[in-house]
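Revision sheet: structure tokens.
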Amino acid sequence: MHDKTTSKANAQGLRIGIAVSRYHGEITTSMCDAAQEAFVRSGGAKENLTIVKTAGAFELTAVCRGFAALESRTGRPGFDAALALGCIISGETTHDQYLAQSVTQGLTAITVETGMPIGFGVLTCQSYDQAKARSIGAAASGGVNKGAEAMLAAIETVNALRAISSSRGVR
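Predicted:
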């Protein structure tokens, strides 16, 4: 069972790029809304969010790489983190498994290559009802919308990396 913890995320001054899939739009729109609310509740300014919609989950990787590339092109962070929001639901074939693995590996590679944290908000569910329970209906069932959860994880990771960076040379 998932242990819900209270986040102490501080988004003040952060800029975050959100890549959100249009596929299963009802689910991903709910996740995007919840992510924005979590950012603002954590002290972030809504104008510091950039939202880019993608055709599907596979394209999330390219957009998140674009967010990270902006950082390396300018020499200063364009974005402090990225957020990938999508929904992959099992079907009659194994396509969902290949897609989920590809997206996961692609997003991980971006983080390893660039150091930019990416909040992983890609649902991999066996049914539409499971996806709804993790997004649209999360609050009604006592859960947390996975879009908000991914946003808080991204914010906390940025802050953790900043703390590590500022403690260089300190033992």
